Amino acid sequence: MINVLFFGPVAERAGARQVNLDFREGLRWQDVRDTLRARHPEAFEIVSVVAVNGRRVGEQDTPPLADGAEVVFMSAFSGG
Amino acid sequence: MNDTVRLQTEDFSLDAEVAALCAGSKRIGGIAAFLGCARDFSGEREVREIAFEAYHDMARAELSSLRDEAIARFNLIDARIVHRLGTVSAGENIVLVVAGAEHRAPAFDACRWLIDELKARAPIWKKEITPQGESWVTPHP
């Protein structure tokens, strides 16, 4: 299982704070994004930061996800 | 209160954080602090409250990294960062950065650097609650 989290404005647009996706060998975070972007296009319009297991990742990061991985899609931060 | 980096719903005390910083070393000769508060307006709108939400584990780790980086980069003796989560009323405290160094210049520089980096790197979002409704804040410099 892949545990996907949304926060703040992304969660509001997605209408969900957490989504679980089935795990399969070779799954990358980009595959998770593509699957969920098709379901929640408005939410992904504002996604600019992605984290896997608490660490920021970029497009160049392509290692497969482990079963149980946590993937978070976030908009630009506005704390402080 | 003992933790040098905290995300918390309850208010904090500038005096208590400065006292905790000073308690750790008598080499500190300069302390700079940045205290961010909730304004009661945004543009032309009245703001009653601001709601903060964080990706808690990552935010805390990021604040801890920022503190470590600031200590190394500016040769600080110590630094503390506190950010509130949940709902904050207009006029209340939001965030506090305190930097202690042997001299004032690195304390000032580190304080500015810490709050700027916090805004850019900590996964925290705020929503303004106004009489007309609620809206997430788009970050600006």
Overview of the molecule:
The complex is a heterodimer of chains A (80) and B (141). Chain A has one domain: Roll (Ubiquitin-like (UB roll)). Chain A is 28% helix and 26% strand. Chain A has helices at residues 8-14, 29-39, 41-44, and strands at 2-6, 18-21, 49-52, 55-57, 70-74. Chain A has a 5-stranded mixed sheet with strand order 2-1-5-3-4. In chain A, a hairpin with a 2-residue loop joins strand 3 and strand 4 (55-57). The radius of gyration of chain A is 12 Å and the shape is globular. The termini of chain A are far apart. The mean pLDDT of chain A is 97. In chain B, helix 2 runs antiparallel to helix 3. Chain B is an alpha+beta fold. The longest helix of chain B has 19 residues, at 56-74. Chain B has one domain (5-132): Molybdopterin biosynthesis MoaE subunit (Aldehyde Oxidoreductase, domain 3, Alpha-Beta Complex), CATH 3.90.1170. Chain B is elongated.
Keywords, please?
heterodimer, A: 80 residues, alpha+beta, Ubiquitin-like (UB roll), five-stranded mixed sheet, 26% strand, globular, B: 141 residues, Aldehyde Oxidoreductase, domain 3
CATH topology of chain B: Aldehyde Oxidoreductase, domain 3
Distance between the termini of chain A: 34 Å
Question: Which strand-content bin applies to the residues of chain B?
Answer: 35-45%
The largest sheet of chain B has its strands arranged as 1-6-8-2
Basic shape of chain B:
elongated
Please tell me the overall pLDDT of chain A.
97
Determine the oligomeric state from the structure: heterodimer
Strand count of chain B: 10
**What would you give as the CATH superfamily of chain B?**
Molybdopterin biosynthesis MoaE subunit
Elements of chain B, N to C (H/E):
EHEEEEHEEEHEE
**Overall outline of chain A:** globular
- Low-pLDDT runs of 5+ residues of chain A are none
Secondary structure tally, helices of chain A: 3
